[in-house]
Amino acid sequence: MSNVSVNIHHLNLNYQQKLVLRDLDWTINRGENWVLSGASGSGKTTLAKVIAGLQSAIGEVTINFDTESKLPAQTLYVESWYQFKNLEGVANFYYQQRYTSQQAKETLTVYAELVHYGKANHIDINEVEDLLTALDFAPFKNSQLIELSSGEHKKLQLIKALWLRPQLLIIDQPYTGLDVRSRQNLNILLDEIAAQGVQLILIGNDTALPSSIHRYAVITEGKLNEVDMLSQTIATEKITATVPNFLSTSPIYTSTQIVKMVDVNISYGEKQVLKNINWEVKAGEKWLLQGHNGSGKSTLLSLVNGDHPQSYANTLYLFGQKRGSGESIWDIKQHIGLISPEFHWYFDASSTVWQSIASGFFDSVGLFCELGYEKNNQVNELIEYFGLTASKNELLNTLPLGKQRLVLLARTIIKNPELLILDEPCQGLDQQQTQHFNQLVDELCNNGMTLIYVGHFEAQLPSCLTHQLQLHQGEVVSYDKTYRTQKELA
Length: 490
Prior knowledge:
By secondary structure, this protein is α/β, with parallel strands linked by helices. Helices cover about 25% and strands about 25% of the residues.
């Protein structure tokens, strides 16, 4: 039996006349576990899909499964995004539907999805219980798929993969959306299945990896090079453009009070998601919102941005006006710039980069009217700042995930909003993109913009944060108006 489990020879792939992979060679021997890194758009995901047989390319790709292993002789690729459908097999959800459909039973529950997956792959449903517990996911067994946050969807993807234990497991961005504890628990679980014979290829730039990962590669200019992770650097082009002039002035505030919540409670049947929340955000403040996956962060933000229907049943003030006093959801959104993993899921990716950014002026998904001269110039300035000029006429869904996120980040700030809500905005971005986006956030906030920022790690946060709200199981456990710590965040 050959000691080589994966052999790739002279692999070439062009996408839309752009070179992605060029004469790429890679040999993976049996028992080796790898991490594949590279800048956003370097071809990491493309290569993973080629290995899994989901993407065609020119060249040789050979996978040799172990015929003596009891593990399934298959390659499983876990995407960085989770795609799910409703009970009728349709996936065209809209963003607010997550908060308006809890009683409609439009999608399968987590447990029903797992039962279906287990039957399809001939694995025992009883074996999944320990995985649910290990990733703190057992409380979500009866939740509908559409109710889950990005981190919770990621956990469901991972639980399926860990449960199946294929001979070759490729996970794209395994830690996206996970809090610190969940990342640590995931690494333990990955080490366990690696010891059982599963070969791992992790796609991403994270450095806190399972101990079973001992080989490292980086893609640069279409080529794969083995590297020493400890000295690995990812070559990226530094953004040298200055912040556009239209973002250098303070937003025009309609009220000094941005958000005020008084004893806010949110429940779905017997499940209480938020419990007696009291929170006030004043103009110009910069808040860090944190908490473990499932702590209620996304639900709290849905009240602030006007998407949650239960806001009318609570004492909630937005931009100085009590919710339910005649304002529409669009009246609220004109004050806000928002980016979140969920918004990215549901955004219409068939628009061009230019159209996607310009739609931020109107809080629309897609551009349906012509812009005036000034707004045209603002879009072009922002495109240049983010280094997207060469892609301005390309469709959003043709770009690498990291560049898609940059486009939506540009859309978020195009109108210089009073309140900037950044819910894990750097998911999918490489190190250089993360650094420069957070530098932009710091510059904007120096000019008086109000900020609510969700993030788990100090290295991925802007330095301007001054206030902190921490949730645990729907309750406020920390309310700090003098946030200055530099520790890793839980």
